[in-house]
Amino acid sequence: MTKFNYQKICSDLIEGLSPKGREVVSRRFGLDQNQKETLEAIGQDHSITRERVRQIQEDAILKVNKVLDRYQPVFKHLENAFRSYGNIKKEDVLLNLLGEGNNQNQVFFLLTLGKPFLRFFETDKYHTFWTTEPKPTAAMNNVVSAFHKFLSKRKTPITLQEVSANEFFGKNKSKEKIHSFGPQSFHSILEVSKNIQKNQDGFWGLREWPEINPRGIKDRAYVAFKKEQKPLHFSEVARLIGGNANVQSVHNELIRDNRFVLVGRGLYALKEMGYRPGVVRDVIIGILKDSKKPLTQEEILSEVSKQRVVQKSTVLINLNNKQCFSKNPEGKYVFVKGVSSI
């Protein structure tokens, strides 16, 4: 990428201003320091109103605009960068990319001056972003709405490598009226959205999903189980959560939250992964009900082993409970009529 000395360019641009105009612009945009200053703060230093400071700033910007032609290469560079992002980018990400951390205020100032660049303030749906599209909101709404529906139907987070942006846009372009935004804009638009977010592992999903924004120990435990896709001991869950998670606190949350099922001594699994809640007796009753036919001891042992990590003797003791189970003439087990599980 072409390197520009943004600090020198900005200094040159405001060099021809009056001392007060140069000071106001420099302080308002933070060109000589990291902190941008308010109209009121500058006005207090000069014993003038914030409105007068605004007028000085506006007059100074008009004068700067008259000399922009000599700096067209830098603005062309910024336009090319926008094109590579799909003509839209979340503000903090954009400034970090273009300003490389040290020149963010200078890049912000140049974007403010450049005619193709438009800044849209934060709303309840979107973070503050920049674009070269004059009316982007309708198209953005359609993109976000279409992907929101896609995620709601899928019900699990997804990486952008797993979903082809070209395929997604191809299916939705005429229906959703995406207009000038294309596949290259896909990531940038999602980045701007508040309702669709990316977690630390690079998976995109709905903001309220625990995999995307885990809240508290129980959600972080849920995410750990989703990643591992197998039963885990509560101490292992605490280790996976990290951050010095208290083992007993993790265990207490696993006990209280009905998303988790106790499947062995200290072992838990996700209910949504097909694990039945309840004790071994309840599991056996559920297996027999689902089978809709009597089962042999071995068949029951096999099915219980998919649900619980217990000794064979534990299953046999439960099968000997005459109030719940009986054998038919063929020696197969049935549950006693009227008995119920959790």
UniProtKB/TrEMBL annotation:
It holds the Pfam family Sigma70_r4. One of its GO terms (biological process) is DNA-templated transcription initiation. Residues 14-64 form the RNA polymerase sigma-70 region domain. Gene3D superfamilies: RNA polymerase, subunit delta, N-terminal domain, Winged helix-like DNA-binding domain superfamily/Winged helix DNA-binding domain. One of its GO terms (molecular function) is DNA-binding transcription factor activity. This is RNA polymerase sigma-70 region 4 domain-containing protein. It comes from Candidatus Wildermuthbacteria bacterium RIFCSPHIGHO2_12_FULL_40_12. The lineage of its organism: Bacteria, Candidatus Wildermuthiibacteriota.
